[in-house]
Amino acid sequence: MTRMPRPKSTFGAIVELVVIVAFAIGLALVIQAFVVKPYQIPTGSMIPTLQVGQRVLVQRVSYHFSDPEIGDIVVFHPPKGADTTETCGLQPLPPGEPCPEPVDEPADTNFIKRVVATPGDTLTIRDGHAIVNGEPIPDDFIKPCGGTRGCNLPKEITIPPDHYFMMGDNRGASDDSRFWGPVPKDWIIGKAFFTYWPLDRIGIL
Q1: Residue 13 domain-assigned?
Q2: Which of 15, 45, 67, 146 is the most buried (most CB within 10 A)?
Q3: Active site annotation includes 37
Q4: CA distance 60 to 58
Q5: In the annotation, is 45 catalytic?
Q6: The pTM is what?
Q7: pLDDT tens digits, 165-192
């Protein structure tokens, strides 16, 4: 005769629930730390592509196996001081030139911008457009620069090894590499690949 399994005690059921919840929380933390992390857009520097308050997912895996490419939207640590002042690693910065190198320490905060130039590329800025290796890169998605400071930087620089030059899509209202320099690859957190909020903007980036 087959015996029915004995019902679990209340204490046993509670322990099992606690273990399941702890495992789920731990798994979520591991995923955020090493795989995918949500990020909320804090400023208007990426308008019209990303609006203030919009939420995106950032994957943290692919750049362990490949390098960022021009056009990627990335989350990264800017150079120290970039969140409060425009601090270039080269002082004084020659007029008419994008900042060619950052200070040697990252900030604690996170920025989100678009990669416009990669290691070894030459770069100038014309009317807010990145001219890379003598040719403008595709950027019909940007908000025009409007003639503000940083819209025209005709003196050419070369991006250092393992560094990436970042610009916001809102070219006339973005605090970016033009003012504090290219970003080392080690400071890049990951690539934004999907927007999930608000619902009317949901989709792949």
Answers
A1: no
A2: 45
A3: no
A4: 6
A5: yes
A6: 0.85
A7: 999 999 999 999 999 999 999 999 999 9
